[in-house]
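WARN  no MSA supplied for this record, continuing single-sequence
INFO  ligand: Phenylacetyl coenzyme A
INFO  echoing inputs
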Amino acid sequence: MYTQAMDLMAKEGASAPTAKPVRSAQEMMLEQRFEARIDDGGFIEAKDWMPEHYRRTLLRQISQHAHSEIVGMLPEGNWITRAPTLKRKAILLAKVQDEGGHGLYLYAAAETLGQSRDQLLDALHSGKAKYSSIFNYPTLTWADIGVIGWLVDGAAIMNQVPLCRCSYAPYARAMIRICREESFHQRQGYDSLLVMMQHGTDAQREMVQDAVNRWWWPCLMMFGPPDGESVHSAQSMRWGIKRISNDDLRQKFVDATVEQAKVLGISLPDPELKWNAERGHYDFGAIDWDEFWRVVGGDGPCNRERLNARVKAWEDGAWVREAALAHQRKQQTQAQAA
Ligand code: FAQ
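INFO  complex generated
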């Protein structure tokens, strides 16, 4: 997907002057056509003209999303060797592998916007790019793995289903496939917790409750800052990149999860959580946004560990990339000689 022309386009974008450029009549016509298509609920393809700001917004969001998937492999990956049964080990292996696949679809979608995979990964490894705050928390017990499936994947699905209707078609297509797999991920997490809660020992039930207590608030933070402080939301909603606001998605997640918690037989760690008949939603307590920004800013419990693990994986994999390129060169030489 990636071409030299796209690289040039990206470089031009990066060095564009901040003063508003004078737009040609043709550019204005293209912009009107773009806006009309967005207003009609249509899709934008990679080859279509798009405003520079739209392209940069998508590149930011899709690359952050891709980074989240591959960093998200790390907390669960730590438990593959310690899964309690062969069945759980096979499920966890498949789940972590799926997450690697999601990263690949998303990097491919981001590449259509003019940056190479190497540039995107360099931004992650140098600490310039963001990834989801949730993956900077530790996985202390086996119950954390079930809770990641239930709550983290549950929050991810809530946020990602509307992205299947994102105005940028390559992202929307990637999301359709990703959401199908995330739904399996959520169910396997819930199932593993249900087994511990219904057939486990008291110690196992306490382990599940402890994991839920630690993950609940960070999961609510996954949806991003409150709408009033979300710098990108208004423009992204206008362009049909985001379809539902951060706060509305968070509320939908709380409403769905409270009912699932009842079936599990666990409590959620929020004394202010209660049904509000007037609103038709659950009220919930205040989120610690200072903690959120600390974690986003690099000072969460596992930020350094996660980034170091990613950089090490990249460096350890250098020989694989070199071998693949050598193989490609050999095949090209053979094809030219034939
Ligand atoms: N963590 O103005 P907004 C998964 C940043 S995938 C870190 O509201 P926006 C699968 C935001 O980037 C989970 N940073 O921004 C899985 C911006 O900073 P910037 C990832 C965050 O983009 C499961 C600033 O705050 N999902 O879990 C976070 O309109 C299990 C202002 O925020 C996606 O990426 C955060 N939580 O809305 C894998 C979905 N929230 O860029 C393994 C796609 C906000 O200006 C195991 N992304 N920030 O420097 C989105 O839907 C949006 O980008 C939001 C943020 C909703 C995340």
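The first strand starts at residue 274 and ends at 276.
INFO  checksum written, moving to next record
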